[in-house]
Amino acid sequence: MTRIYAIAAGAVILLLSAVMWLVTMGGGDDRYAQCRASAIAGGSDQIGGPFTLVDETGATVTEKEVIDEPALIYFGYTYCPDICPLDAARNAEVATLLEDRGYSVKPVFITIDPERDTPEQLADFTDYLHPRMVGLTGTAEQIKAASQAYRTYYKKQPSEDGDDYYLVDHSTFSYLTLPEAGFVDYFRRDEPAEDMAERIACFLDAG
């Protein structure tokens, strides 16, 4: 009986060793696995990618110029009556919390309402929230391409008050993107700033 227990114990140890090897050397090639709150369907490489937009100064920029440091990207619009200002303010708070801990993360606000969100409008909006927050707009086609790259949703709603008064339905995720790794994780709008900062710090330390 003792021999059977010894064999069983040896088998368990071998199994655990194999699992640890797979995680650290073999199948576990995701260096950010311990930082993720949930699995990403299809893998993180299914989200993010190239885009060309217009910044607050009116200059044309690409994702390489925008994501030159860790970036927290959000798609919204400045005329949003409630959700976008709260989400953007939360992301600004995250950036400040990380700055206090010695990390630098750029909050990025990409409009889904290019008809009204001019570079000047975005500058007023982002400057109020955080000195390093970047606002991006562009043509309808450029916005659509960026949105599709990040798998976001938006749809302009009909207005009864005239063309200048309308709402835009949209998704509300924030996307953590790193210069070398690209998109690594997303955050839901109900996640507190402190929890986001803690998880982002994990990604930055792992990188």
UniProtKB/TrEMBL annotation:
Disulfide bridge partners, by residue number: 80-84
Residues annotated to bind Cu cation: 80, 84, 170
InterPro entries according to UniProt: SCO1/SenC (IPR003782), Thioredoxin-like_sf (IPR036249)
Pfam families referenced in this protein's UniProt entry, alphabetically: SCO1-SenC
Keywords for the protein's UniProt record, in alphabetical order: Copper, Disulfide bond, Metal-binding
CDD domains (alphabetical): SCO (cd02968)
GO MF terms held by the record: metal ion binding
Transmembrane portions of the chain: none
Coiled coil: none
PANTHER family reported in the protein's UniProt record: ELECTRON TRANSPORT PROTIN SCO1/SENC FAMILY MEMBER (PTHR12151), LINALOOL DEHYDRATASE_ISOMERASE DOMAIN-CONTAINING PROTEIN (PTHR12151:SF25)
Family: Belongs to the SCO1/2 family.
Protein name per the record: Protein senC
Organism whose genome encodes this protein: Primorskyibacter flagellatus
Lineage: Bacteria, Pseudomonadati, Pseudomonadota, Alphaproteobacteria, Rhodobacterales
